[in-house]
Amino acid sequence: MGISALLAQNVDTDRRTKKIPYSILKVNAIDLEIDEILNGDQQFSADESLRFSDVNATYWVKLDFAHELDTLDTRESWRLRTLNFSKATLHYAKEGSFCEKKFGHFERREKSNSFVYLRGVGFKKQDLINGRYLFLEVQVIERFANAPRFEYVSEQANRFFTDYYTNDNIYPIILDHIYLGACLIFFLTFFIIFCYTKKAEFLFYALYIFFSAFFLVRLFIPEYRSFVGSLFGYWSVLVSQILINFFYVLFAMYYLNTKKAYPKLHFAIIAIVMLLGLIIFLFSYSYYNSHFSLSNLFLNSQRLLMTLFGILSMGYLLFRAKDRLAIFIVTGSFIYMTGALLYMFTLSKYYMIIGSTLEIIIFSLGLAYKIKQEYESRLVLQQEVSMKETNTLRAQMNPHFIFNSLNSIQHLILQDNKLSALKYLSKFGKIARNVLESSHEVLVTLTEEIELLRSYLELESLRFDNSFEYTIHVDKELDTDQVEIPLMLIQPLVENAIIHGLSGKKEGNRTLSLHFEKKDGLCVIEIEDNGIGRQTAGATKTHGKSRGMQITEKRLNMHHAQSGKKNTMEIIDKYDSRSHPTGTKIIIRLVSNP
Asked: Which is more confidently placed, 9 or 419?
């Protein structure tokens, strides 16, 4: 770019061409020969306001070199430069007969090395008909708004069009490829998201971006130029205009969930999609049957249709918007429509590229916002489901504790131990009341949990005639009022220690200790007994595993799934020096609150 800036002035000088006086004849017959043109009575018009605007006509252009003959003597070969017509044929004289060279968009014979310019068509002074004329036969499939331009330059100077570039040539190439690169990134991003989520709005938006880039960007590679130089290639470029709108309205339909949120708009979108599908069919049929005026009519009708639909839809959403998603659609659509209309009236595609780029950025933010909304909704739903499952597990545990307590009271009554039965019933009532008062809470403070454990241990000590001793130690550095845990999380483990560990011990003292401390940022809870151990009690077998232990494990897993952090439970079997079991130790590590 820097070098081209230094050379730009010289290149522009060497690119100077000479204009050729011309006159134009418009005929409706497409099978006229050059002899008929020369010998006929048709009148060519030199009116410079004439445009190649009729796609059903054939235009004959007479180029008059009468005042250029001395210049043509200075070089042997020359190059005629003109517009990029759809179909163009140069008629010239050679050895007393008439010959022709085709050089139109669909009939290009010579390849151009330039990313920007065509090679034009070559001729020599001796090719002039009657010593002064060249004739062009021209057809167009789209109306030309630009004024006709016919110039010539020497073959040597023509290389400054094909081999050299100025900043004015390079900047459009850079802008095109920046836009293409951005579209490629967004296309792949949204297509990958679609493959992962299977949500249709991401697929339709990816296709919308693809056809936007395909329509607006011209790739400067020979294979692409050959492709768009074919009838099918040019059709694919033209039909992509319709496909842009087709996939855009489908994207809007799924993005806004119009079927549920905006039923009237949903009905209108379905109708538009069907109309666009019909227009694609009619356009293609007329195009391939060379009814180009009809195919252009279909293209213009869909532009008008989408402009009216866009304006009405934006107004409807502004007044009926139910969330911010509609605001993203309205803002992006307005910017894109503005760029498209400016492109339509000025024929500068860069207005549409700028509008499309801003619209893609806005819609990308809108899709990100929708993903955030759906994630938050799914998170709330998961929390509700998790809470219900937690309540279900706790509901399974509470009857387990209640039935054990009632069996103990029944046992004391049958033994006619009324005093112990009354004390047990009083303690049980206190625990039951505390549990019921906290039944609506998923989590309780560690202080509340310890109080429940203290009452439970008093109850079990009474039940087993004070046959075991227990201690509860809370480290001073642990703020039990700030730590929250699932209600009655530890009780099943304490119950297992008493029933499966201590109650089966025949000799020696029976002890149970509970220790709560803060260590490495975690709340560490240890339940240790000096009972007969799990192996002796048979707890390691699947059918012998405590129901309370299974529930506690599930509740721990669910608790860390909700918080996003992992809580752990470790069971340690203790042995003496002779490998005899001496009890069990359970360590629970909970992520404490800050």
From this structure: 419
